[in-house]
Design goal:
A hairpin with a 2-residue loop joins strand 1 and strand 2. This protein has six helices and two strands; from the N terminus they run H-H-H-H-E-E-H-H. It is elongated and about 60 Å long. With 147 residues, it is mostly helical.
Length: 147
């Protein structure tokens, strides 16, 4: 750690970042009229098109009944669809029917997209060191807190 950044300053900066990201995500969810679980599901489905409901359930940490209700709600809203897996007709796959990069859905990723743009203005080695520091901080705090 250099003299330029003290531990309390780094902790404050990380707290400010997490708070700003959370605020932006909450504002996007309100604007779209969806809850946190639905928003998280949409983002995960966008990153994993054709995901199985069991995989989505595991990612979100909800029950089988919960993921069924969530998918039903998103299907009724017209933002996802269920498709039968052509290799195993007993299996459903879930995909988006919307483009997450288009308005109004892009609001869910705008903060992270803007983060990426700002990060491109920084040296790759500096960004990698920052990522390693964040990974070490996360691992150290998660391991020590028992979570």
């Amino acid at each position: 750690m250099t003299d330029e950044v003290t531990i309390p300053e780094l902790r404050r900066a990380l707290t400010d970042y997490v708070r700003a990201r959370s605020t932006a995500f909450a504002a996007a969810r309100r604007a779209l009229g969806i809850g946190e679980g639905d928003a998280n599901a949409l983002l995960h489905i966008a990153a994993n098109p054709g995901i199985r409901p069991t995989q989505l359930r595991e990612h979100l940490g909800i029950t089988a009944a919960g993921v069924t209700a969530l998918i039903d709600r998103l299907v009724d809203r017209g933002v996802v669809r269920r498709d039968v897996d052509p290799r195993d007709r007993r299996v459903n796959r879930v995909s988006l029917t919307i483009d997450i990069a288009d308005e109004p859905w892009v609001q869910l990723t705008r903060f992270d997209d803007d983060f990426d743009v700002v990060l491109l203005d920084h040296d790759e080695v500096e960004a990698m060191r920052f990522a390693q520091l964040l990974d070490a901080l996360t691992a150290g705090t998660v391991d020590r807190s028992g979570r």
